[in-house]
Amino acid sequence: MSPSSLRATIDSRLEEVCKVREAIARMECAPFSTEEWHEVESGIGEAVNNAIIHAYGREAGHKVKVEVRIEPDRVVCTVTDHGRPLPPEARKKPKLEVVPEKVEELPEGGMGLYIIHQVMDRIEYESKEGRNVLTLVKKARKR
User: Fold this and answer.
1) Does the pLDDT value for residue 1 go beyond 50?
2) Which strands make up the sheet holding 122-128, listed edge to edge?
C-alpha cells in the first residue's frame, strides 16, 4: 500500500521537482480519480517550480519543503521556502486572455499560478518572518 502522507525537503534545483512528483505519484490517491490525482501532481509540481524559480531565483543550495496529506475527502499540501516573498500583485487569481487567432502568442513560462488556480480548490499564501508558505487544497469530487 502507498503512503497517505509525504514529507520531503529538496534542494532548490529544478531537477529536484521530478523527485517530488514521482513521490506524489506513488501515494495512495483514494478518494481521488486518476484524473484528479494528475491535477494534484501538476498543482504541487508548479508550486515547487515557483518556489525555486521565483523565491530563490533558480539559485541552488536552498531548501524547499513539501508536505502532502490525504484526508478522507481532500488533499492538503504545503510548500515552504525562505526566499523572496510572492509580490502582492501575484497573489490574485490570474486571468488568461486567449484570442484563438493569436494562440501562438501565449507565453511559454509564467503560467504556474494560473495552472495551480485551475487544478486546486483553495490556495492560501502567507509570508512571515522570512518564511513563505503556500497551502493548496483539492477536494475529491463526489462519485
Assistant:
1) no
2) 5-11, 63-71, 74-81, 131-139, 122-128
CA-angle at 122, arms to 96 and 34, nearest 5°: 85
- Tell me how far apart the alpha carbons of residues 85 and 132 are, in angstroms, rounded to a whole number: 6
**Domain architecture of the chain: domains with CATH:** 5-139 (3.30.565.10)
Say how far apart CA 86 and CA 126 lie, in whole Å: 9
Beta strands in 1-143 (DSSP E): 5-11, 63-71, 74-81, 122-128, 131-139
According to DSSP, residue 117 is labeled H
pLDDT per residue as tens digits for the range 46-97: 999 999 999 999 999 999 999 999 999 999 999 999 999 987 766 666 565 6
